[in-house]
Specification:
The chain is α/β, with parallel strands linked by helices. 24% of the residues lie in helices and 30% in strands.
Length: 357
């Protein structure tokens, strides 16, 4: 099989490429240049698009003896991921840029170009399992629960999954590092990336303020009384506790959390932790990881964060959206987050949270 491997420069994608070479596939490595201004690339391998990462990926490709290229997707990344990230925060929502990147760049733009160039599949170092059943490619959780990345892949379609490979699906991270060490790959002990790759200093609030400017407004409690001020609603997300800098303490002395964000009125509402509890979630723009949309009412699991706990729920879906009723209240669920639904460890589909109550 002719396989294009997206090589980030980290240990996971490096071992994924090595395994495909060992299995006899015709492998080509590609590193994605995603930043319009290379001078703004972060250093120290804190993200997944630094200049160091590009050099690391090239060295691994040289060690494996495979062709290697750098593809410039910076304009598309800016339009589809960065601009969307800023717009979502401006609208009072909380987006997941890594999930958006998978949807629009790694498994759309890269796959589209790869297929046009004659490749059969695109492989990455994600931790997730694909089970082939006839013409269907079923996405499952990985063996390493701590590293499972099925959530951020939950937006992929059958067309994309059928042309995807995840060679690390059955391996725990410690064994991946050991394998890289045995292969002589210099990235064996390289730290994992955690930050948002296009925010070079890790300061999300500062990045958004530079993009949107400051817009001072009021922080109010659930009774509408002003208890503080803010420099812009984009600096907050539902469930946030730190950085509120409230001038008026709570009557009961307990911490307060962001309960709601209203960009139109430019207010942030805070209140007790109990005010974050929700049992009903509405999702819009549903996508399906399975071949046939799971319409109707069924029992399943909901996940709303990359490493969040699966939440038992009753799920009702149609072409217009998804309605989810949780068995037990969940806390800190924000509009804009992805609601990924599972049947056991099988990813069924995803939607964008429009509201919760």
């Amino acid at each position: 099989m002719k396989v294009l491997v997206a090589m980030s420069g980290g240990v996971d994608s490096s071992v994924a490429a090595a395994r495909l070479v060992a299995d006899g596939h015709e492998v080509t490595g590609v590193h994605l240049a995603l930043n319009r201004n290379p001078e703004l690339y972060r250093s120290g391998s804190r993200g997944c698009c630094s200049l160091e990462d590009s050099h690391d990926a090239r060295r691994v490709a040289d060690t494996l003896g495979i062709p290697f290229y750098v593809w410039d997707f910076s304009d598309r990344f800016h339009d589809d991921v960065v601009t969307n990230f800023v717009a979502e925060y401006a609208a009072g929502r909380t987006p997941n840029p890594c999930l958006r990147c998978n949807e629009k760049i790694k498994f759309a733009a890269v796959l589209e170009r790869g297929v046009a160039l004659g490749f059969d599949a695109v492989a990455t170092g994600h931790y997730a399992r694909l089970e082939r059943s006839g013409d269907e490619a079923l996405l499952h959780r990985a063996a390493d629960a701590a590293k499972d990345q099925s959530y951020v892949l939950g937006v992929l379609t059958q067309e994309q999954l059928r042309r995807s490979l995840f060679p690390l699906y059955g391996t725990v991270k410690a064994d991946v590092r050991a394998e890289a060490e045995a292969l002589g790959l210099r990235v064996a002990s390289k730290p994992d990336s955690h930050d948002i790759c296009f925010i070079s200093d890790g300061d999300t609030a500062g990045f958004l303020t530079r993009a949107l400017g400051e817009r001072p407004g009021a922080i109010v409690d659930t009774e509408g009384a002003v208890v503080g001020e803010h420099a812009g609603t984009h600096r907050f997300t539902v469930g946030q506790r730190r950085g509120l800098r409230l001038g008026v303490p709570a009557i009961d002395g307990q911490p307060r959390y962001v309960l709601a964000i209203e960009p139109v009125t430019n207010t942030v509402t805070v209140g007790p932790h109990a005010g974050l509890a929700v049992t009903e979630i509405a999702g819009i723009r549903p996508t399906w990881a399975v071949a046939d949309p799971r319409y109707g009412t069924w029992r399943g699991l909901l996940q709303v964060r990359a490493h969040g706990a699966p939440l038992p729920a009753t799920i009702e879906a149609d072409a217009a959206g998804v309605r989810i009723t949780l068995d037990e209240p969940a806390f800190g669920i924000a509009p804009g987050q992805a609601a990924v639904t599972y049947d056991g460890d099988l990813v069924v589909g995803a939607s964008t949270i429009a509201g919760a109550a």
